[in-house]
Amino acid sequence: MLRYSWRFTILALGITSICCAQTLREAADRDGILIGTAVRPPQLSEPAYASTLAREFNIVEAEDAMKWWILRPDQATYDFRQGDEVVRFAQAHQMKVRGHCLVWGRYNPDWLTQSHFTTQQLSQLLQEHITRVMQHYAGQVFAWDVVNEALDENGAVRDSLWYNQPGIGLSGQGKDYIEQVFRWAHKADPHALLFYNEAEGEGLNRKSDAIYAMVKDFKRRGAPIDGVGLQLHVPALDADIPAIAANIARLAALNVQVHITELDVSLPVNANGLPRPEDLTRQADVYRGIVRACLNSAGCTAIQTWGFTDKYSWIGSHSRGARGHALPFDRAYAPKPAYRAVMEELSAGRSPAH
Ligand code: G3I
Fold first, then answer.
1. N or C terminus of the chain: which is more exposed, having fewer CB within 10 Å?
2. How many domains does the chain divide into?
3. Does residue 64 have its Cβ closer than 6 Å to ligand 1?
4. What is the 3-state secondary structure (H, E, C) of 105-142?
5. What digits encode the pLDDT tens for the residues 242-298?
6. CATH code of the domain containing 236
7. Residue whose CA is at the smallest distance from ligand 1 atom 38
8. Which range of residues forms the domain containing residue 189?
9. Structural domain includes residue 34
10. 0.85 surpassed by pTM
11. Is 63 in the pocket of ligand 1 (CB under 6 A)?
12. 3-state DSSP helix/strand/coil % of the chain, to nearest 5
């Protein structure tokens, strides 16, 4: 009897060590998958926020702290304090940091948008910004959203400060300004992974076709691009998972990485701000499908939610309170059905076929 008991004990220990991850981070680490979330520096001092963040995730991304309007309060000033706080937290908890975002046509500070800079001045300002910020975070930020949301729903280059209002001197030349920015970024930090990050171009549509064509062209001509960020702000409970999976696969086939960068699945709420119970179950199914679509493609290497607790999400304020409850943890940091769905998929790991 004794002989069999020690064998059983060893078997049980062995099974425990390879199975039964207790957190998203443990499950993801087992397969070398990056699981992360957007963070807000003021919340890092909140014990439940910090402990949940460090326990469940292995990468973080500043929700706003590395954007122009925080980093550059005026033309002469760089303020890295909030971004540095995110990096310090990550370093203290052995986490990686994604940078977001170097070039976006929206939410830029007034001194930048209201000063009537010439194209030459904007070109110099933008290259200086990219260089200074990437060199400040060199070795600390492993991947950057270099350009964010530059295309419209038809895949055309959006009008923007950086393209043609008045732009950096490449107005009317399509995606040339995007390529120029990627080349500046690569020169600033040759070791950082450089991503194009986009919303509503996650499935198969004109925008995702345009992203695919742009990446294919960049790769063909040796323009430095390493990946595409699919934001995946899912506003409805009927995400087209097969189309998302197909888009991930075709991008990965271009030999670039795909990061799911801003995943959240918002729900309609009632007058008391509460979702329907059945919607929480459907939300879990959407999270499950998207995580599985990523895990089924070796080229999809990171899954990030845009915040992790419903206590702090952009959606409430940006939907005038009509939607919310979009994230894996509720306002009290309790795991929701969505969390359990992500946990199950991460625990199941990458499908052997891919
Ligand atoms: O902190 C100030 C506060 O002091 C001030 O009183 C208040 C009113 O003006 O503004 C507060 O700053 C707001 C900030 O969120 C923090 O709440 C900014 O106005 C507001 O513009 C900012 O919104 C952010 C938005 O990007 C624009 O930068 C959201 O937090 C952030 O979640 C959202 O994230 C974007 C990604 O960067 C790109 N993809 C889409 C995603 C959602 O829009």
1. N
2. 1
3. yes
4. CCCCCHHHHCCCCCHHHHHHHHHHHHHHHHHHCCCCEE
5. 999 999 999 999 999 999 999 999 999 999 999 999 999 999 999 999 999 999 999
6. 3.20.20.80
7. 148
8. 24-348
9. yes
10. yes
11. yes
12. 45, 20, 40
